[in-house]
Amino acid sequence: MFPCLRPALACVILVSGSSIAGAATATAPVTQTSVATAAPGAAAYTRPKVRAITTFVRLDRAHYEQQIDEALIVLRAAKDEFAKQGYDTETLRIVTQPLPQLVQGQSDAEALAYLQALDELSAKDGFMPAVGPAMMRDSDDPHAMRILEQALSVLTHVNASAMIAGDDGIHWKVIHESAALVRYLTDHSPQSQGNFSFTATAMLKPYGPFFPGAWHDGAGRQLSIGFEGANIVQEVFARTHGHFAESVAELTRQLTVHARVAESIGRKVTAGKDWTFMGVDPTPAPLGDVSIGAAMETYTGAPFGSSGTMTAALVITTAVKAVPVRQIGYSGLMVPVMEDKLLARRWAQGTYNTDNLLAYSSVCGTGLDTVPYPGDISTGQLERIFGDVAALAWKWHKPLSARLQPVQGRKAGESTEFHSQYLFNTTVHPLP
């Protein structure tokens, strides 16, 4: 889930029946290399890419550029350390305090200008920005959501979220406001892509590295790290041939190799500084041909969505949870429909649907991620989908999120037409 910022307009890859984001902010080549020089135990596997090195800051309007420069020093130091060990880093990310606090005391015009300045600075300095949740509880003023919808309809880098469930229960007013925001962005952002930069989170703790849901509400100066590790899962499953216990054990071992590297680097670059390393999210994030769908099909021997898919999801989550490092964020399984090339193709073929994704989320997952819906979906229908994700997360006290992407002018059975190198077009399904 991207783990993600709304991608810049670029090439279109059409996937028919047969959350990375931020092209402007990618920070390294995306080639994968052998792990011959990595930690012991990984030599037979392909090294994953570092998907996100993420810092958390509390910006002061008068000094925000200096504060971002300080965060970039830490981010670039971590990137350099990874490079020394042969890892490519895809994105450097900075998360501010929640949006209402970030723009407190400003008029709408001033707040939008501030967000635009942050957006432009991120493009110039090569980082991805997130402004946290616009609403964290039902008692929050929903006006921040109105500011956010205007910002996301035109800005191409800023990410944000809203919290639809927490320890205090399900946030029904936030669900209503989130649905209204998604409806607005469907109608008012180019190709309806503004929704790529927004997610509704449920039961997600602070300091996770993955966007758009990453958030914090503290003093700032923290660091966390996440990988793009779907390739590891596929390579492990190719060796373990559908054996549950062996798959869990070997996947745990291989994820641990890289998580320990990240933990060591995180501690090193924050040591002796006024920064705190918060942990690693071992979730094996996918992107394009680095496909978690293909990995799970390697385990089951059948198309994603067939019998056995939930078992494969359980294998992955069990292994992720067993990685012996300080864990943060989702620490589970991401199944982003349009960020994973094979998942986009299987969605077009109809091998799985929204209900399947919710079912898989009961044993793993991050909920509903980059799921395309018809452009005429109503606010009420969006509320019900958000409500289902919140209910599942709250019932089982697990982090889930919903990044829903209705497509203006598209009906069930028609193809999406996103213009992005990070979204793989697929077929719109009927509403669940």
Helix count, per DSSP?
12
Q: What percent of residues are in strands?
A: 15-25%
* Strand/helix succession: EEHEHHEHEEHEEHHEHHHHEHEE
Q: Give me the secondary-structure category.
A: alpha/beta
Summed up:
Helix content is 38%, strand content 16%. With 432 residues, the protein is an alpha/beta fold.
Overview of this structure, please?
The chain is of the alpha/beta class and 432 residues long. It has one domain: Anaerobic Ribonucleotide-triphosphate Reductase Large Chain (Alpha-Beta Barrel). It is 38% helix and 16% strand. It is built from 12 helices and 12 strands. It is globular, with a radius of gyration of 20 Å.
List keywords for this structure.
432 residues, 12 helices, disordered N terminus, single chain, 10-stranded mixed beta sheet, two-stranded parallel sheet, alpha/beta, Anaerobic Ribonucleotide-triphosphate Reductase Large Chain
Layout of strands and helices, then pairs:
Elements: E1 13-14, E2 49-56, H1 64-84, E3 89-95, H2 99-102, H3 108-125, E4 128-133, H4 143-152, E5 159-166, E6 169-170, H5 172-188, E7 198-202, E8 222-228, H6 230-240, H7 244-270, E9 276-281, H8 292-300, H9 309-322, H10 341-349, H11 354-361, E10 367-374, H12 379-396, E11 400-407, E12 424-425
Parallel strand pairs: 1-12, 2-3, 3-4, 4-5, 5-7, 8-9, 10-11
Antiparallel strand pairs: 2-8, 5-6, 7-11
Helix pairs in contact: 1-7, 3-4, 4-5, 5-12, 6-7, 6-8, 7-9
